[in-house]
């Protein structure tokens, strides 16, 4: 399962449901986009270390940005940015899931739901 950035944010806020969700999934993936978003939100080196340690401790596999992911994300932007407000980061995360044949879990159903080939699991905190 590919975890969207918001799931990590819910865990940081102390949401046990989000933490249990991660714990219950032995195969954990995240897009390099999510990894960068998490690091970008850190306010200091201690938080950077905390994020990296969390990802390593729970054996998350960070999936790289590939040409196919880039091409698919660009198509998603063309198709869904005007009609549904899809943003670049969400398009990359969705494309990463589709290109790797993974379900994605997110509480961001508004922007991701229209992508018909995406196996979206909606998280409700």
Describe what this molecule looks like in 3D.
The chain is of the alpha/beta class. The chain has one domain (2-122): 5'-nuclease (Rossmann fold). It has helices at 5-12, 16-24, 32-41, 45-57, 67-84, 88-99, 109-112, and strands spanning 2-3, 28-31, 60-63, 104-106, 120-122. The protein has a three-stranded parallel sheet with strand order 1-4-5. It has a two-stranded parallel sheet with strand order 2-3. Helix 7 (109-112) links the parallel strand 4 and strand 5. The chain starts with a strand and ends with a strand. The model has no long low-confidence stretch (mean pLDDT 95).
Short description:
With 125 residues, the chain is an alpha/beta fold. It has a single domain, classed as 5'-nuclease (Rossmann fold), CATH 3.40.50.1010. It has seven helices and five strands.
Brief descriptors of the model:
single chain; 125 residues; alpha/beta; Rossmann fold; three-stranded parallel beta sheet; two-stranded parallel sheet; 7 helices; 5 strands; 59% helix; 13% strand
List the helices and strands and how they pair.
Layout: E1 2-3, H1 5-12, H2 16-24, E2 28-31, H3 32-41, H4 45-57, E3 60-63, H5 67-84, H6 88-99, E4 104-106, H7 109-112, E5 120-122
Parallel strand pairs: 1-4, 2-3, 4-5
Helix pairs in contact: 1-2, 5-6
Can you say what the CATH homologous superfamily is? 5'-nuclease
Uncertain stretches of 5 or more adjacent residues: none
Q: Give me the CATH fold name.
A: Rossmann fold
Cα-based radius of gyration, to the nearest Å: 14 Å
Going by helix content, strand content and strand pairing, the class is alpha/beta
Helix tally?
Answer: 7
Order of helices and strands: EHHEHHEHHEHE
Mean pLDDT: 95
Per CATH, the architecture is 3-Layer(aba) Sandwich
Assign the CATH class.
Answer: Alpha Beta
Write down the domain tally. Answer: 1
Q: Strand content of the residues, in percent?
A: 5-15%
The N- to C-terminal Cα distance equals 18 Å
Question: What's the number of extended β-strand segments?
Answer: 5
């Amino acid at each position: 399962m590919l975890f969207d950035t918001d799931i990590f944010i819910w865990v940081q806020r102390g949401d046990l449901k989000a933490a249990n969700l991660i714990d219950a999934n032995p195969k954990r993936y995240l897009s390099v986009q999510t990894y960068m978003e998490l690091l970008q939100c850190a306010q200091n080196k201690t938080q950077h270390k905390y994020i990296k340690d969390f990802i390593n401790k729970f054996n998350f596999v960070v999936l790289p940005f590939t040409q196919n992911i880039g091409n698919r994300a660009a198509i998603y932007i063309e198709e869904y940015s005007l009609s549904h407000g899809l943003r670049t980061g969400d398009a990359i995360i969705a494309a990463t899931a589709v290109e790797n044949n993974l379900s994605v879990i997110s509480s961001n159903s508004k922007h991701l739901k229209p992508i018909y080939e995406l196996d979206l699991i909606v998280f409700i905190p």
